[in-house]
Write a structure and sequence with these properties.
Distance between the termini: 24 Å
Helix content: over 70%
Structural class: mainly alpha
Shape: globular
Number of helices: 7
Largest sheet: none
Radius of gyration: 21 Å
């Protein structure tokens, strides 16, 4: 299965669905189908601003319209948030979907992809932290004279990682 997070919509499709959506918007009656198709294209765009707009349209569909679209909205909300690196939101949408349909292979695959992306970001941040503090003379092989400084540095790192990117134990 190809990586759904890397899939990009063609500009022709985006223009086509944007034109349909804007025509309906001018006539003051936008159908669910037109809004969903336009949001679906925006979420798969290569531009973060388009992806955010698509997320807003999907959230509107999810909150204000019938249940028939909710399943698909959750899936594309997860994809959109993952594409703009909002991994915790993306996982929340995936989990909501899996509560309703726990055996869905496509969504389980998406969950695995999001977790891999999160791991990559966390390992990158961890290596940056270690490099930064070794560069500043805080090598773990040395004894630190001031325990208060040690505690502050370690707590700062723990706080930063836990707040920005929660550990995977909270997701299991």
């Amino acid at each position: 299965m190809e990586d759904v997070l890397e899939e990009v919509v063609s500009s022709d499709d985006l223009k086509k669905f944007e034109r349909i959506y804007n025509e309906q918007l001018r006539s003051a009656h936008v159908t669910q189908k037109a809004q969903f198709e336009y949001a679906w294209c925006l979420v798969r765009s290569k531009y973060p601003a388009d992806i955010r707009k698509g997320i807003m349209l999907l959230e509107d569909l999810y909150c204000n319209h019938s249940d028939s679209e909710k399943r698909d909205c959750l899936y594309y909300l997860a994809i959109g948030n993952a594409r703009i690196k909002e991994y915790t939101k993306a996982l929340a949408y995936v989990r909501s979907f899996l509560q309703v349909e726990p055996g869905n292979d496509q969504v389980q695959h998406l969950e695995m992809l999001i977790k891999k992306k999160m791991e990559k970001v966390q390992s990158y941040l961890g290596s940056c932290f270690i490099k930064k503090y070794k560069k500043n003379g805080f090598d773990s092989s040395k004894k630190w004279k001031n325990k208060r400084t040690t505690r502050r540095i370690v707590n700062k790192y723990t706080y930063y990682c836990d707040c920005k990117f929660p550990s995977f134990s909270t997701f299991k």
